[in-house]
Write a structure and sequence with these properties.
- By secondary structure, the chain is an all-alpha fold.
- The chain contains two helices and no strands.
- 88% of the residues lie in helices and 0% in strands.
């Protein structure tokens, strides 16, 4: 249940960051946040 909650939280944060990046003049920081959240999620899942 905890993994599912973290997955949904990751999806929400990454979607918000990607949408913010599409409207920014310099989208690189938003894309770094979005991909960083996914990398942290995958690292945590792979560690188990």
């Amino acid at each position: 249940m905890k993994n599912l909650t973290l997955f949904f939280l990751t999806c929400i944060i990454a979607t918000g960051a990607f949408l913010a990046g599409t409207t920014m003049k310099n989208p690189l920081p938003a894309f770094i946040v979005a991909f960083g959240v996914w990398m942290l999620f995958l690292y945590r899942i792979g560690r188990k």
